[in-house]
Specification:
The complex is a heterodimer of chains A (about 600) and B (about 725).
Chain A: E1 6-16, E2 24-35, E3 41-49, H1 50-55, E4 56-63, E5 79-82, E6 91-102, E7 107-117, E8 121-122, E9 126-127, E10 134-140, E11 148-157, E12 163-166, E13 172-175, E14 178-187, E15 194-200, E16 206-218, E17 222-233, E18 237-238, H2 244-249, E19 262-266, E20 271-277, E21 280-281, E22 285-289, E23 294-298, E24 309-319, E25 324-327, E26 330-336, E27 345-354, E28 360-365, E29 371-377, E30 386-396, E31 403-409, H3 417-438, H4 448-490, H5 493-523, H6 531-560, H7 565-595
Parallel strand pairs in A: 1-11, 9-18, 16-27
Antiparallel strand pairs in A: 1-2, 2-7, 3-6, 4-7, 5-6, 8-10, 10-15, 11-14, 12-15, 13-14, 16-17, 17-24, 19-23, 20-21, 20-24, 22-23, 25-26, 26-31, 27-30, 28-31, 29-30
Chain B: H1 2-10, H2 17-38, H3 42-46, H4 55-69, H5 71-75, E1 78-79, E2 88-89, H6 97-111, H7 118-144, H8 147-159, H9 161-164, H10 174-195, H11 198-214, H12 218-234, H13 240-257, H14 266-269, H15 274-295, H16 299-327, H17 335-341, H18 345-349, H19 351-354, H20 364-371, H21 374-387, H22 391-409, H23 414-452, H24 457-468, H25 473-501, E3 510-513, E4 519-522, H26 524-535, E5 541-543, H27 549-556, E6 559-560, H28 569-579, H29 583-592, E7 597-601, H30 612-626, H31 649-653, H32 655-661, E8 677-678, E9 683-684, E10 695-700, E11 706-711
Parallel strand pairs in B: 5-6, 5-7
Antiparallel strand pairs in B: 1-2, 3-4, 7-11, 8-9, 10-11
Helix pairs in contact in B: 2-7, 2-8, 4-6, 4-27, 6-7, 7-8, 7-10, 8-23, 10-11, 10-13, 11-13, 12-15, 12-22, 13-15, 15-16, 21-23, 22-23, 23-25, 26-27, 28-29, 28-30
The chains are: A alpha+beta (about 600), B mainly alpha (about 725).
Chain lengths: ~600, ~725
Amino acid sequence: MKSFRFCFLMLTIAILASPALSDLVLSKVDRRVENAGPEKESLVLLAFPEQQAKNMAYLMATPHEGKGKVKNPVVALPVEAANPKDMPAALTFYSVSLPKGLAEGDSFTFDVLAVFTHALRPIPEQITQADIQLVLYQDSAHYLSPYAVKVQSLSVKLPDSRIESYTKLENTKIHGSEIKYGPYENLPSFSYSPIAVHFESNLPFAVAQELVREIEISHWGNVQVTEHYKLIHGGAQSKGEFSRLDFLARPNVRGASAFRYLVANLPPRAHSVYYRDEIGNISTSHLRGDSKKTELLIEPRYPMFGGWRTAFTIGYGLPLQDFLYESDGKRFLNITFSSPMVELVIDALIVKVVLPEGSSDISVAASFPVEQWQETKISHLDIDGRPVVVLKKTNVVPQHNQFFQVYYHFSQLSMLREPLMLISGFFFFFVACIVYMHADISISKSSASYLAKQQWEEVQAVIQQVQNIISRCLTTHDNLEASLRDLSRTGNIQACKAARKAADGLLKELSKELKPLLTFLQSSPSAAQVLPKVEELVAKERELQEKVMVKHSTVVDGYEKKLGARDIENRVALQQQKLTALRQEVDDLLEFIDEI
Amino acid sequence: MSNSYTSDILKPFKLKTKQQELLIRVLILCLVYILAFITRLFSVLRYESMIHEFDPYFNYRTTLYVTQHGFYDFWNWFDYESWYPLGRIVGGTLYPGLMVTAALIYRLLHFLRFAVHIREVCVLTAPFFASNTTLVAYFFGKEIWDSGAGLVAAILIAVCPGYISRSVAGSYDNEGVAIFALLFTFYLFVKAVNTGSLAWGLASAFGYFYMVSAWGGYVFIINLIPLYVLVLLITGRYSMRLYVAYNCLYILGMLLAMQIRFVGFQHVQSGEHMAAMGVFFLMQVFYFLDWVKHMLSDTNLFQEFLRITVTCAVAVGGIALGVGMASGYISPWTGRFYSLLDPTYAKDHIPIIASVSEHQPTAWSSFMFDFHILLFLFPAGLYFCFKRLSDATIFIVMYGLTSMYFAGVMVRLILVATPAVCLISAIAVSATVKNLTVLLRSKTKVAQIGSTKGTSSAKASSKASLDQSQPFQKNGAMALLFGAFYLLSRYATHCTWVTSEAYSSPSIVLAARGAHGNRVIFDDYREAYFWLRQNTPLDAKVMSWWDYGYQITAMGNRTVIVDNNTWNNTHIATVGRAMSSYEDEAYEIIRSLDVDYVLVVFGGVTGYSSDDINKFLWMVRIGGGVFPVIKEPDYLVNGEYRIDKGAAPKMLNCLMYKLSYYRFGEMMTEYGKPPGYDRARGVEIGNKDIKLEHLEEAFTTSNWIVRIYKVKPPNNRW
């Protein structure tokens, strides 16, 4: 027992069954340690009974700063699980390393914060809707320690002033909702004096039996967080009827033990928040945001009575630049570990960090021990999947909501991979379409239908050419008419004659071009049904041509003979009528052929 | 200058008229395709991407099963979560087309690395197929009339409310893909008849197979096509093309359809399919006679031969049918089939069919609602079809007329009539507009030529002489054209309005306007189902009226006694009987069914009218149909259905009444009304002092729409 010659000078234990954390018990201990032995000591042992150790979620020791001082960032003292010899097996030990060894007579003050989950037991275990919920807390009034304790006191702070019963020891005082035991002086080591406090607590006993957080990083500027909760009301089981009428009328009396909403403090600039479950969107939620935080208030689909479960998913996007940093060539994500939900105990927390495809060299830095492994996830447009870092931790309390870091390498060029894939996908699709349109993929090249189709296509091409020629003829006619109009305006006969000459040449050429096409059509069997129409068209056009020429000559003649405009018009009036009719016929024919 | 310059540059890119037309056509089709899709997304925008109504939940659940367990497990799936304690052989009692389609789309998307959720696929399946239907409608219209009619048909069907009602996003039901399959099969068949090509016949057989796999409405195809063939035979339009098309469709289609377990051997065994077989044999006889006639040159001899053969054939057919019917090999027509032919049949014989609102005869208003101007265009289209009679137009006329009759018999069959109505109306629109524009264009041409030729009096007189034939032709055509466009634009606005107001609500989530004009959402169904899912034992059995069965299994993940697959009338009647008995009698039934929870839907607080109290008479009727202990008059007062003080005593004390109104008498629902005022029916309830002995309230949703009761274990005996 040589090394246990410390004694605690002063100890105040404050147990806060605080309103915020009803299923949690925070115990805060101020310890002042004095070395009474000759050797220098740098380790202090903390002992917890098995039952508490089982429920302990979080343990932190910090050097005591004293009140009123400017709070520097407190550096936690390293705490490790210890397994010293010659100690009762029913106790679990943790050792706190002091910053410097304590010589004899030296003293050092530090705070220990331990958080226990599931330490409050509902008694009775089943209550009806109208009952209030009573819970029992058990602890020792004397500080259980391997060392002798000089002075110690214990105060239990309860959320409500209604206390059903509590263990009365000597020196017990009660102030409103606070019970004070002690101070006790000069206790021997391992002194133990059980106390039990039975009190009312109607605060939400929200326990997430499982929470899966998925943090997906997109280098296009978004960190998408998706959290899947499986929630249970961990308090007294509800029994008997649930009456909506009573609950509606007096929710604070009939349904005092139920909780109706949860609050999540999301990081600032969170966007695209959603709240849903397996069967769809849940419409009862409110989002308030300012520059410092985004507060999301969610109501489960139904009020949560004792033992009732629910499961839901919330998701939100965060701006990438707030969480992703770069240091010496590596990128790292710096984001909080646990749920943004306040007042929530998590039995099993799984955090999955999905890194972009092509990340490598992944490492994680967290301030507490977590289980970790890697997976891959195949998401949109992935070829070999995105690397996923999975972190698992059981018994998580809000104190664990600290930042952790994931380091990885990622080349900026990999970002272009997916857009390029999409672009090339569409490109090949269109190329395939073009190839399909132009390629001849019929199986038998000699079958009758195939040949007929090919011939028909040729015929169509020829008819198209014929049409073109005819329409060019028609434009020539229009030009001639235009020249006539010019003539009537300017009286320039020479220009008109020149136009006539040009038109003559052009028309001759065109009729020359037309000839082989017509002979082709006459020879082709598949053109048989169109041929008469085409021939009619050509004939009409020729007639039209002649008429136009005659008219032209007449008018020019008239001008040469210096006849009056009215005279000329009278002369050509009859021709004009015929011309109009012919032109109409030709147009109709063209349209008809077009429709074949 | 610059203008001519640019036109010079653009010259090589200038398209020919044909190409321009093709471009415009393709563009219009693409737009219609997109329009058909997005007009169905109202519900997603208003609410969320969710499955609607009742049946789709079952389809969704089975699709989920296919994607998770694979096709063979799905085929062999025995679902013990429904029809407790009987269970249901799912693989053999459903049309798997929809689920397999959705699962394939899902697989394809995942293969292309789009990590979508199966729910999104299911929600968007119906709009996607609606888009495809517009394409089919285009090709169909092109086949029976011309490409203009095809385009109009595509546009009409894209927004037609009759079709939208069953194909909005989230309405993940068989009809969503079946209408596509139906129209596609018809199109391929008409194509096969027009071309006489074996390839098209084969394609139509596969189309038919898909239709059979997707929806029970395939019976319509297998009866309409033989009827059509018969009509062609009678009208002397028999041809080799028809022979090839029909035989190919019938034989291959039948063989393929037998691969669907739910259909099995019905093609050769059920009375509903016998017409097709009869026509098949008739065609063979016809062909044979044709051949004999070809071989025999003697007319008298042929007449003799004809008489003998026909007599023999008819006799053999009649005997075969008679023997088949008598021996029970050929099953008689089912009640559903009868109720189609005779609208009053279901009312008298099968209350369970009559109880479904979508099986009611159609009111005129719903025709107007679903078809709008198509109702007037339809006869006009028929006129045009008769004017240009061909094999294809005869088909569409027959399809239109028969489906219109069925649409009149049952509300839900408006859906089947919609494609026909759209196609025929499209013919009317297209033909009218075409005629009018031809008129307009010819006129303008003359006018143009006239105007370019100056102001000669002779020309003017000639023009006048042309005009004189029909003085106001041009103006009239213009007016008619504008009228047509006005009507069509009215149609478009009507369709959009109907889609957004009437057909885009998921019916699982109810929305109402609050006092301040804000939108209030009643999400009670999901609240209750999720409560069941989370807070009841995994093997809990839930009894409710069959309407909610699919939803409870899909969303609540609990076993139900009866569900929307109303295959066992007795089981449903037992539930109906339990609901309409006194509590202690009901408790016996509930115990015998091993029920743990009873779920009722109650709208008295919110004024939601399609609740269980309003459906209660059907429970009594269906229950009474099997168990004569339940008599409908016991629940009525002078033939009147009441729930207030003047209600029948049995009504006031039956289980359904008690469960619905338990502790409702203490509730103030409306200002200025006594407590216990039922807002759905607008009366104060008659029994305010309800005590439950064997059940206890387990959960009631926030607006009381769903109430769940727990069945207490029996009391201890001494």
